[in-house]
Amino acid sequence: MTGHSHHPPWTSFALLAGVVTVLGFNWPLLAIGLRELSPLWLSSLRLLGATAVIAVVAAATGNLRMPPREDRPVVLSVAFGRLIAVMVLVFIALRLVPPGRSSVLVWTSSLWTVPMAVTFLGERMTRQRWFGLSAGIVGIAVLVEPWGSAPDARTLTGYGLLLVAALAQAGTAVHVRGHRWASSPLELLPWQLIIATVPLTLATIAIEGLPRIRWTPALIAIVVYQGALATSFATWAQLTVLRRLPAVTTNLTLMMVPVIGLLSSALVVGEQLTFATGVATVLIGAGVLVGVGLNRPPPSPPQLR
């Protein structure tokens, strides 16, 4: 791609730092927003806001055009798999599990991408990848803290939903990696958002009816943050950075998202951080680093949590 030299390196690292900060601090904000909104309505409002922002930007830049037939499967995959399924599962789980721990479990999607890529893309399962996957699985076990009092059904349900979300996110990532793109990801993003927003909003209205929302300045700020920053800015910035910086640099830097998620959750919503939480985060991060990062994977699709 031409034009890389016109952007000084510090601008790319500044964008990447912005993404990590926005997505990391978003976890406690989601937990606060879910005190006033249902998971379905928070998901719908987030997608409605992001769709409005991205559609305006795409139209202004001339990128709002119908996706070609070759790219429609990946549009549907991202819309229903990564946006609707993952977002709703995570938001439901956030009513059951603290946000910091949730951010760590969702990040395991990078681990599950490895065996899926081996199965569906014919990639090789090396000893290094086995080690990374094993470290990540041990990290999940440590996060649950099975040596203490047994987690209640509510907590186990939350953990289960987060792992299903991570698997769905990994499956979409594998599809994106194996897809032969006719358009750029940025050209397809408006349609992915529109196709996700319309059925989810209609289904939310059918299931829950129109919401009675007690709009406060804090809730308005959280909803705006979801659409404008956590989705629109984070997606655009990641797409931009993935075209300027090596995939390894980007993916390893994004490993700071769950770390900031844990620390900001402790600061904002008072989540208790235990020694086991720290050990689990290190193990899962090491698993991603060894099993995924050092194998120089192709760029992953943007994280939207």
Q: What does this protein structure show overall?
A:
The chain has one domain (4-295). Helix 1 packs across helix 4 (99-106). It is globular and about 55 Å long. It has twelve helices and no strands. The chain is mainly alpha-helical.
Topology record:
Blueprint: H1 9-33, H2 39-60, H3 72-93, H4 99-106, H5 109-121, H6 127-144, H7 153-178, H8 185-208, H9 217-244, H10 247-254, H11 256-268, H12 275-291
Helix pairs in contact: 1-4, 1-9, 1-11, 2-3, 2-8, 2-9, 3-7, 3-8, 4-11, 5-7, 6-12
Short description:
The protein is an all-alpha fold and 305 residues long. The protein has 12 helices and no strands.
Cα(first) to Cα(last) distance is 28 Å
Major sheet size, sense and barrel closure: none
Rg estimate, integer Å? 19 Å
Strand residue content: under 5%
- The beta-strand count equals 0
Q: Which stretches are poorly predicted, pLDDT < 50 over at least 5 residues? A: 1-5
| Total tally of structural domains | 1
Question: Helix segment count?
Answer: 12
Shape: globular
Percent range of helical residues = over 70%
Assembly type of the chains comes to single chain
Average residue pLDDT: 86
Class computed from helices, strands and strand pairing: mainly alpha
SSE series: HHHHHHHHHHHH
